[in-house]
Design goal:
Blueprint lengths: L14 E6 L7 H15 L5 E6 L5 H11 L4 E7 L1 H14 L5 E6 L5 H6 L4 H7 L3 E9 L9 E3 L2 E5 H11 L4 H14 L3 E5 L4 E10 L3 E2 L3 E2 L12 E7 L3 H13 L7 E2 L1 E6 L3 E5 L2 E5 L4 E13 L2
Parallel strand pairs: 1-2, 1-3, 3-4
Antiparallel strand pairs: 5-6, 5-17, 7-9, 7-15, 8-9, 8-14, 9-12, 10-11, 12-13, 14-17, 15-16
Helix pairs in contact: 1-5, 2-3, 6-7
Length: 305
């Protein structure tokens, strides 16, 4: 059952918190300051606008949660790439404030979510105050009752996706260097095995759960709508195959796209060995013999932009 795109009346905010990494390899500090100054001059009301630099990996989760926990109408903006925005989204979700809203100003190496979902310059969208809600991906990886669940705004990937991401993080950014890293990593890559709900062991090269139709700046994964709002996500499966066939499939993704993909509201499997996985560019790990469940969290995140 499709859920309608929720649109509030024009919103104003009591506070706007702009979170950025001062040590970003991009220009996040400058972009954060520019956004701060533009909002000061553009908004017809006077919210408290705060610049919040992060101090370490994962700090954006804490800053976003603390900002949203104060209650009321708060807008938490991530000036970052997909990974930084993932932290802000998770912090806001942990706070449990239904009046908290998220936004992202692209300032990273990978800006898939912003590129796909943004409709206009962020400062203009904030001034208009049109808030709408999107689906998130929620993943269960054996968390205890007191531990927060993890959310992804764009995709969760197992197999080749996190392995390549880990190697890219070790090296320098840049299109040519990234391409060399991908080729080197791919040449050494081994498939992974999991047990599906049918009880059988299956071997994959890649397994991606996609909330948006594109990832990694170049690849078109599916024909899904740009704005995730139907309570479902796409499952893109690369069963284990000869590497030349994987390369051809990847090439097709970057040129003509992979076409229609299965769309589901949940997907479950059991790990046989420890596995890395990637959430919006952030690499994490799940242990062996864990039942993993990925599910849609329908219209869970109010956003602007």
């Amino acid at each position: 059952m499709n859920q309608e795109h929720i649109v509030d009346s024009a919103r104003t905010f009591e506070s706007i918190v702009i979170i950025f990494n001062p040590n970003s390899t991009g220009d996040a500090p400058e972009l954060a300051q520019q956004l701060h100054d533009k909002l000061k001059s553009l908004l017809t009301y006077r919210p408290e606008i705060t610049l919040q630099p992060t101090e370490h990996a994962g700090h954006a989760v804490d800053l976003a949660r603390e900002a949203a926990e104060k209650g009321g109408d708060v807008l938490v903006v991530s000036v970052s790439g997909d990974g930084g925005y993932n932290e802000v989204v998770n912090g806001v979700m942990q706070a449990g404030n239904p009046r908290a809203v998220c936004a992202v100003r692209a300032a990273g190496n990978a800006n898939d979510h912003s590129r796909i979902t943004a409709s206009k310059p962020l400062e203009e969208a904030i001034a208009e105050g049109r808030v709408h809600s999107i689906d998130l991906l929620r993943i269960h990886t054996g968390q205890k009752d007191h531990e927060p669940l993890e959310y992804a705004h764009s995709y969760i990937g197992f197999g080749l996706t996190p392995v390549v991401a880990t190697e890219l993080e070790k090296g320098s950014k840049g299109a040519l260097k990234e391409m060399v890293t991908v080729i080197q990593t791919f040449s050494k890559f081994e498939p992974f095995a999991i047990r599906l709900e049918d009880g059988k062991r299956h071997k994959f090269d890649s397994l991606v759960f996609a909330n948006i139709p594109e990832m990694a700046k170049y690849a078109t994964l599916s024909e899904a709508d740009n704005l995730p709002k139907d309570g479902k996500f796409e499952v893109i499966v690369f069963p284990h195959m000869p590497k030349w066939r994987v390369l051809l499939t990847a090439l097709r993704a970057t040129t003509q796209g992979l076409g229609d993909q299965p769309s589901v509201s949940s997907y479950e499997f059991t790990t046989l060995k420890p596995l890395p996985y990637q959430m919006d560019g952030e690499v994490k790990r799940v242990e062996a013999n864990v039942t993993v469940r990925v599910e849609s969290a329908p219209l869970a995140l109010p956003i602007i932009g």
